Amino acid sequence: GAVVSQHPSWVICKSGTSVKIECRSLDFQATTMFWYRQFPKQSLMLMATSNEGSKATYEQGVEKDKFLINHASLTLSTLTVTSAHPEDSSFYICSARGRDGFLGTQYFGPGTRLTVL
Amino acid sequence: DQQVKQNSPSLSVQEGRISILNCDYTNSMFDYFLWYKKYPAEGPTFLISISSIKDKNEDGRFTVFLNKSAKHLSLHIVPSQPGDSAVYFCAASVTGTASKLTFGTGTRLQVTL
Fold first, then answer.
1. Per-10-residue mean pLDDT, chain B, length 113
2. What residues of chain A lie within 8 A of the CB of B32, using their CB?
3. Per-residue pLDDT tens for A39-98?
4. How many other CB atoms are there within 10 angstroms of residue A75's CB atom?
5. CA A54/CA A33 separation, integer angstroms
């Protein structure tokens, strides 16, 4: 149980284009999903928290207009990197917390490697 | 400001022996702690957690110890197996803050034959 998928697993795009990453909870309903990014040899940094049906809450320093998050259903959240630039290249990971799960336990997707040329 | 720290970037342990991974935190508001295991290019996998009302939690080969006064937690893996080789992250959260996790910088564990 508690499986989270992400799509795509990797993506290469040109500078200036937008990229959408999907995060799905496959066997449970996720009231809250989180988006992280990880640079090489660094820790996971929380970007934003999204609750189903409401606006995402962004961490300090994360541009809301650049990283658009939509949590339209209890099993799907999307992260759109708009007008991507090479410095946005990173490993993006989502996690989900279920309605019945222990409050602190998040289950992570496999991640999406974004490379912006 | 790194609120959760893992001061050992790497650790090498022989198969069958005990692996001890350490984590320190500075925020006294943290009341729930988790350990995750991560392979390259994959998302973290939840291993074990502990609430601040406990000082020990055990699950199979994995045991987490919490010392609140020292703001220190550790993960013990006994016996260590080659498949345990991965990066281990500790994470902390404050109940009631939408369970936002603050991660440490990770410790790479290598279990040798």
1. 90 97 96 91 88 95 97 98 96 76 93 94
2. 103-104
3. 877 888 999 998 888 889 999 999 999 999 988 888 999 999 999 999 999 999 999 886
4. 19
5. 12
Point out the residue among A43, A94, A105 whose CB comes nearest to the CB of B46: A105
Planar angle of CA A24, B95, A3, nearest 5 degrees: 20
Which amino acid is it at B78? V
- With tokens 């991560």, the residue in question is B38
Q: How far is A61 from chain B (nearest CA, A)?
A: 14
Is residue B81 within 8 Å of residue B62, measured between CB atoms? Answer: no
Element of type H or E holding B100: none
Structure tokens at B54: 């406990």
- Backbone angles phi and psi of B84, in degrees to 5: -80, -10
Q: Give the CA radius of gyration of chain B.
A: 13
